[in-house]
Write a structure and sequence with these properties.
The protein is built from 18 helices and 14 strands. It is an alpha/beta fold. It has one domain (12-480): Alpha-Beta Barrel (TIM Barrel), CATH 3.20.20. An 8-stranded parallel beta barrel has the order 1-2-3-4-5-7-11-12, surrounded by 5 helices.
Length: 487
């Protein structure tokens, strides 16, 4: 039968966004406040420690709640997808999208998280979005929890560190899966679930000044998310056996800085800590090394009887992940310079160029990740985020010549194709983000990823008009040729 020569005919080409970065309408349609609504914009000069930039305290939350406006809080206004989704989806259709990854805004459905009944206005909004996608034959890929949860669940329960939040999430998942069971086939339970460890507030709704042991609280929250994910998988299969439900990881592959055995082992440990999340959700159990790791780091995980069996019995159908950059591991980081990264910094890799934000560009790393993960799990893989953040400039004639983005996408898609030819089962590729949106890590608008330009600046000023970048035509051609024409 021979090796695959290219992408399969049913490959899901498309793009991705998140509700909290795109929708806006933070106080419309009965929506409640979310964790994302708490993050203000401020000028940034150093991108080597994004975790500090994203740090949220009790005081910041109180200030944000008292600030009854979208001004200064970019994720409250987004790019107004809430009102402009028809215009945007028409552009996605013009691109030839087969799939569009988006998230449902949890507090748009349950404004406080623990409400007795869902918000019908919120449910109706997503009905209309999914209907519009169906009109063009675009398959929605829906993330249930993408960097936001009702802020009431943080303030009244302590976020995901409290086991009670599992029940609220399951009720939310049951509500939307039932509502859209004939409109949505592909579901992701959590976005970049490992973020709960890296940035506890963003990933788990944990306010660090309210807990004694942040790392322990983060892993407890993560365990509750694993349980919630398994319950959502179980529930989804009972609602519609045709659902395909996956997990989602921020894949941060680590290379050893040198061939010193100590550096090689450090890279192994860092990769184990990254992949433990997919180990639990795809294999159904915590990896063996975790027991010692928890002991060494004074982490005492509270489980309930039946948790382990639940995880084992309800593993995911496929694994999705984001890939932007590779990182470097060493036991002597002081010997190296520091560069930025996706949520946290890393030592510099002298073999790789970096973006303005310090992210190391490594297309071959995507091929390595795909091959390693397929060898490890044997499940279909879905690249649901990959893209280049850059400061795009509109010329006087209205063109945006983002050849650098075309180069980035071309090289990564080429390496993904190599992995497919190596025998890896890849379901699809939804580039981040289809259209310019508010940055998740820095809340900037000037850090643009889309092939569609949105006229808005970091302060929220602009017409919000949409423009096709040069990369728009290139990506359209790439999709039409099923990844064969990348020139």
């Amino acid at each position: 039968m021979g090796a695959p020569k290219g992408f399969p005919e049913n490959f899901l080409w498309g793009g991705a966004i998140a509700a909290n970065q795109a929708e806006g309408g933070y106080a419309e349609g009965g929506k409640g406040l979310s964790t994302a609504d708490m993050v203000p914009y401020f000028e940034k000069k150093d991108y080597t420690n994004l975790r500090e930039l994203m740090h949220v305290t009790s005081e910041k939350i109180e200030t944000a709640i008292a600030h009854n406006s979208a001004e200064g809080y970019p994720k409250r206004y987004g790019i107004d997808f809430y009102h402009r989704y028809k215009e945007d989806i028409a552009l996605f259709a013009e691109l030839g999208f087969k799939a569009f990854r988006l998230s449902i805004n949890w507090p748009r459905i349950f404004p406080n998280g623990d409400d007795a009944e869902p918000n019908e206005q919120g449910l109706k909004f997503y009905d209309e979005v999914f209907d519009e996608l169906r009109k063009y034959g675009i398959e929605p890929v829906v993330t249930l929890s993408h960097y936001e949860m009702p802020i009431s669940l943080v303030l009244n329960y302590g976020g995901w560190a409290n086991r009670k939040v599992i029940d609220f999430y399951v009720k939310y998942a049951e509500t939307v899966m039932n509502r859209y069971k004939n409109k949505v086939k592909y579901w992701l339970t959590f976005n970049e679930i490992n973020t709960t460890i890296i940035e506890p507030f963003t990933g788990g709704g944990i306010v660090e000044d309210r807990v004694e042991n942040v790392l322990e609280a983060s892993y407890q929250a993560l365990h509750h998310q694993f349980v919630a994910s398994s319950l959502a998988v179980k529930l989804g299969r009972s609602i519609n056996p045709d659902f395909r439900i996956g997990c989602m990881l921020a894949r941060m592959i680590h290379y050893p800085a040198t061939s010193r055995p100590e550096d090689v082992h450090q890279a192994l440990v860092d990769n184990q800590l990254n992949l433990l999340h997919t180990d639990v959700q795809a294999r159904g159990a915590y990896p063996a090394f975790v027991e010692r790791y928890f002991e060494d780091n004074n982490i005492h995980l509270a489980k309930e009887p039946g948790d382990d069996q639940l995880l084992l019995d309800n593993t995911v159908d496929f694994i999705s992940f984001s890939y932007y950059t590779s990182l470097v591991s060493t036991v002597t980081p002081e010997e190296y310079g520091v560069t930025g990264g996706n949520l946290y910094s890393t030592v510099k890799n002298p073999n790789l160029p970096v973006t303005e934000w310090g992210w190391q560009m490594d297309p071959v790393g995507l091929r390595i990740v795909l091959k390693e993960m397929y060898d490890r799990y044997g499940l279909p893989l879905f690249v649901v985020e990959n893209g280049l953040g850059a400061r795009d400039r509109m010329e006087e004639d209205g063109t945006i010549n983002d050849d650098y983005r075309i180069d980035y996408l071309r090289k990564h898609i080429s390496q993904m194709k190599e992995a497919v030819m190596d025998g890896v089962e890849v379901m699809g590729y939804t580039m981040w983000g289809a259209i310019d949106i508010i940055s998740a890590s820095t809340s900037e608008m000037s850090k643009r990823y889309g092939v569609i330009y949105v006229d808005q600046d970091d302060k929220g000023q602009g017409t919000l008009n949409r423009f096709r970048k040069k990369s728009f035509g290139w990506y359209k051609k790439a999709i039409a040729s099923n990844g064969e024409d990348l020139d």
